[in-house]
Amino acid sequence: IWDILINLEDESQLILRHAVNVPILMYLSSRFFSFAFLITCTLYYFRNIKNCKPGCTAAVAFYIISTNSTSLLFLLRVRAVFHGSPLVKKLFLLLWFAVAGTSSLDFLFVKAEHSTTDSKRCIFVHQEVIYSLVAISIALIFDTMVYIAISYRLFKWFTLDENNHRSVRDRAKSLFIGKHLPVLGRSLLRDGQFYYL
């Protein structure tokens, strides 16, 4: 919610000043469905609910759309940075399908029913721990690989000629905090780091 509120002005400018295209739709759907997931879960846990199933279905659907649209944004980013590398683009597309597939299985593994301590409240039950770990791990691996690949590519683009005379420490600073990079490279690197976090 904090992230949405601090970026509200930028997002309104994005909507008003640019033609709607796939990346903008994915960005907006990522933001909207993440927010919808949070609100649904909050209402789900703290309100008196007679039937648990619709709320659970909505929360799962919002989670899946949010996760997959955010991952698709990462995929679009990595494909843009590696536009001349078809093998890298195929690898990340395959990884994105793994993220989409494992997160979509929530419809099979997440169920809800009334709490045994308070019959007016709903809880998620019968969650498969192994499945949850696999789904979270695949999403984390994908996001981390995108972040590392883009950071490395930016580092290589902007320090290709200057790397030979710099120490390992200075090169590491360039890769992780953007030191010695031109303004464009530093802003792209930091923007990617911020979005990843």
What does this 3D model show about the protein?
There is one protein chain. With 197 residues, the chain is mainly alpha-helical. The chain has 9 helices and 2 strands. The protein has a two-stranded antiparallel ribbon with strand order 1-2. Helix 3 runs antiparallel to helix 4 (52-81), helix 4 packs antiparallel against helix 5 and helix 7 runs antiparallel to helix 9. The longest helix has 31 residues, at 129-159. The mean pLDDT is 78.
Question: In one word, what is the shape?
Answer: elongated
Task: Report the β-strand fraction as a percent range.
Answer: under 5%
Q: Which structural category do the helix and sheet elements fall into? A: mainly alpha
Which consecutive residue ranges, at least 5 long each, have pLDDT under 50?
none
- How far apart the termini lie comes to 15 Å
Q: What is the strand tally?
A: 2
Which strand order does the major sheet show? 1-2
Biggest sheet character: 2 strands, antiparallel
Mean pLDDT across the residues is 78
Summarize the helix and strand pattern as letters.
HHHHHHEEHHH
Number of helices: 9
Computed CA radius of gyration, to the nearest angstrom? 20 Å
| Helical amount | over 70%
Write the layout of secondary structure elements.
Layout: H1 2-6, H2 8-17, H3 22-46, H4 52-81, H5 86-104, H6 106-109, E1 111-114, E2 122-125, H7 129-159, H8 168-177, H9 183-196
Antiparallel strand pairs: 1-2
Helix pairs in contact: 3-4, 4-5, 4-7, 5-7, 7-9
Attribute tags:
197 residues; mainly alpha; two-stranded antiparallel ribbon; 4% strand
